[in-house]
Structure formats: C-alpha cells, structure tokens
C-alpha cells in the first residue's frame, strides 16, 4: 500500500480549514491534492480531533496485540494438547516435547520452553560423553596385580601415582566394573575387658611376632614367621619354611640384629616356639623384654594380627603356590610393596617407609 506524504494529524488540520470557511478547491491547490483525495479524507477522518484520532490508533494497536497474543496462545495450547499425553516429569521428556512443538506446530523455542516449564538453557544443554577409560585401565591394572585390595586401597594408590580423580568418580567406575569385594559380616561378640595396647613412640621400641600357616597345591603345609615394627607398621621379616622351631626364630632375630639392631621389647603370643627356654635365654642375653599377651586375647597383639589378615587376603588367598620357591618370591614382592607403596589408614595414608623419612 502506498504511504501518504501527509500524517494523520496534518490531514485533520487540512480538513479543519474547510470548517473555518475556506473553499475545497483553494485547500486542494494549496496542499497539492485532488478533490477526490480531500473527500476521501473527510469520509475517513471527518469530525475527529487529533486526541480522538490518537486514542483510536492506541485501541487499534492494542487490539492487534491482543489478536496476536490469542493466536500465539491458541497455537501453544494446540501444540501442548497434541504433544502431552500425560504430565511430563523428567527434563528429557520435556525437551522432547519442545522439539515436537517446534517441528510440528512451528512454535518458537521461547514459547515452547515456557509452555512445558523448562529453561532454555536446559533445552540447549548437550551432554558431554564421559571418558572413563584411563580410570578403567588404572583400576584393572591395580586389581590384576593386587587382587584382594579394596576400593580405598585402590583410590589412595592412584593418588600416590599422581592421578587427581575425584573419589566419587573412581568409586562409580569401580562399582561399574564389579570390583567390589564381598566380606562376611562381623559376628557380634559380648564386650570383653581388653589390655591396653602399647603405643611405641619411635622405631625399634616394640616389635611384634606371630606365625601363619598355609598349604601348597599338593597339600604340603608351610609356615610363615612375620616380624613387624609397631611404630610404623613396617614388615621387617617374613620367614617361610615347612618348619620354624625356636632356633629358627632366634636366627631371624640375629639377622635383624645385624641389619637393624634389636628392640626394647618383643610382643608375642603363647605359642610353643615363643615360650621356649631357648628364646627366653636369648632375650635375656640381649637385654630384650619378652612380653606375652593373655591367652585367647589376639587383640592385644593387634598390629601383627592386622598384618596377618592382609597377608592372608592379599597374598595367600589370591595365588596358588606349587613350591616354596614361588611362595618366597611372592612374599618378597608383597613385602616390598607393603612397605614402599601401600598406604595405611592408621598412618594418615602414608607408607611405612614414608613415616621414617
């Protein structure tokens, strides 16, 4: 439509000149318009003032706006009725509804998101695929080398290797790989009086000794003598053989005397090798106090008992041994890993060697 060169207020002022007594011909010549145009203006704007015309224009604008709103709401309502079969709950369903309304009914993203009740940022969100392969490789490598360790041992070993993965992320991958170790629930025993466990304040103050036994693939049994420093839980010696009498215990202590020195006290249970006269005489000759725990009270020798549990779970139950040579080889590897790499919760997740440095 061709736009007039006169505004509506100018047209009304031109029409008012006729009411003031001027002739139509003179008015048309003055403003360069035809008489037909003048009478068309008079039919459309005759009798109106400028304020009334402005009010009419406002009403027309408002009416047009309301029509557009009604059309938009009607479109959104139709799209919702078409898209919704039941009340949407998850954001995934709501995003699908927005996509459907846009494609089928050509509703804008803003209107669609507002109608289904989600932010536009939620609709535009693109999920980033998780790359857990480095964690999977690290966990599988650890559990293959140490089959019996649990989650926290894996986590702190990974931290010691320099990985800074969040423990929740590592645990999610750990459980997804089904690496959880099933453990039997502890039996509830009645409370018993416990003897206070001596807490050493420096190395070579208290050592703890204890025996373990297991069998080879052919059924032949063997024994293990474990020696631990109670100060930093360092494994000092693991002697392995089919028979370990009191003289063999003394030989192990003599070897430790040459390489490390002797402690002030040795804590043992009431086994026949430890209550022998030979070991008692050797301790007296070397000014070492031999401390015996109460019968049936293994918690009074808790440090070495805890070590025995780790050896049983992580070493003896994890491998099948055919010869004593294989046992001694694996024991040596495990002992080095225990002292240098294995973090201990009671030591603030430090290794025994790190406590000494």
Description:
- With 357 residues, the protein is α/β, with parallel strands linked by helices.
- It folds into 4 domains: 8-45; 50-124, no CATH class; 132-177; 206-347, Nucleotidyltransferase, domain 5, CATH 3.30.420.
- It has 15 helices and 5 strands.
- The protein has a 5-stranded mixed sheet, with helices on both faces.
- α1 (8-19) crosses α3 (35-45), α4 packs across α5 and α5 (91-105) crosses α6 (109-116).
- The radius of gyration is 46 Å and the shape is rod-shaped.
- The termini are far apart.
- Residues 189-193 have low confidence and may be disordered.
DSSP helix count?
15
Strand order of the largest sheet: 3-2-1-4-5
CATH class of the largest domain: Alpha Beta
Point out poorly predicted stretches.
189-193
How many DSSP-defined strands?
5
CATH topology of the largest domain: Nucleotidyltransferase, domain 5
Decide which structural class fits the backbone: alpha/beta
Strand content: 5-15%
């Amino acid at each position: 439509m061709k736009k007039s060169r006169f505004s509506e207020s100018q047209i009304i002022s031109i029409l008012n000149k006729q009411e003031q007594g001027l002739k139509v011909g003179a008015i048309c010549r003055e403003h360069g318009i035809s008489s037909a145009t003048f009478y068309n203006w008079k039919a459309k704007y005759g009798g109106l003032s400028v304020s009334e015309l402005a009010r009419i224009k406002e009403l027309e604008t408002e009416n047009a706006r309301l029509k557009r709103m009604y059309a938009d709401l009607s479109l959104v309502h139709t799209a919702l009725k078409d898209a919704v079969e039941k009340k949407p709950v998850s954001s995934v369903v709501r995003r699908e509804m927005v996509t459907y309304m846009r494609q089928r009914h050509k509703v804008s993203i803003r209107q669609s998101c507002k109608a289904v009740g989600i932010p536009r940022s939620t609709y535009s969100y693109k999920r980033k695929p998780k790359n857990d392969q480095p964690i999977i490789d690290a966990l599988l490598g650890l559990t293959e080398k140490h089959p019996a360790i649990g989650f926290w041992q894996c986590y702190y070993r990974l931290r010691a290797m320099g990985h800074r993965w969040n423990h929740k992320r590592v645990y999610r991958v750990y459980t997804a790989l089904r690496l959880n170790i099933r453990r039997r629930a502890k039996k509830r025993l009645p409370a018993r009086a416990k003897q206070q466990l001596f807490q050493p304040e420096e190395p070579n103050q208290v050592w703890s000794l204890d025996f373990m036994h297991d069998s080879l693939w052919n059924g032949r049994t063997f024994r293990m003598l474990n020696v631990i420093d109670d100060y930093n839980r360092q494994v000092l010696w693991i002697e392995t053989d089919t028979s370990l009498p009191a003289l063999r215990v003394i030989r192990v202590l003599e070897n430790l005397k040459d390489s490390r020195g002797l402690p002030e006290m040795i804590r043992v249970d009431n086994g026949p090798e430890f209550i022998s006269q030979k070991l008692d005489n050797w301790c007296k000759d070397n000014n070492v106090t031999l401390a015996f725990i109460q019968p049936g009270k293994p918690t009074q020798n808790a440090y070495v008992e805890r070590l025995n549990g780790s050896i049983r779970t992580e070493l003896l139950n994890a491998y099948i041994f055919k010869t004593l040579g294989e046992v001694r080889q694996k024991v040596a590897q495990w002992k080095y890993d225990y002292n240098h790499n294995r973090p201990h919760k009671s030591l603030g997740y430090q290794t025994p060697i790190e406590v000494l440095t």
